[in-house]
Here is the input.
Amino acid sequence: MSTLNSVIPSVPVSDMDAALKFYTEKLGFKLSFINGKFYAILARDGVELGLCPVSYHKGIPGKNGMYLKVAGVDALYAEIVAKGVTVLHPLKTENYGMREFMIADLDGNTINYGEPC
Here is the structure.
């Protein structure tokens, strides 16, 4: 019997160096693996994301999104806003039982953060 235990979404980026700086300095991720300019894995609190230049990724920057479930969404929102990240959807309690907000990275890929309420 096999068990899936994690997923690493690959996010297409147009400028790897700029993306690494944004994800580490603005979103609090730490670089955990890099293969030259071809692929990088970033981690925060056990969540991993892969960054891949558009020349190696079949996705289109700005057309990708992810939803990260978190604990402490209010504190995370305050942290991200304090670092000057543009918020697309301000922190709000939704009628479907989630408290969430949305940002975009430098390429327009959307990142939703949400916590059940």
Observations:
- Residues 10-116 form a domain with the 2,3-Dihydroxybiphenyl 1,2-Dioxygenase; domain 1 fold (CATH 3.10.180.10).
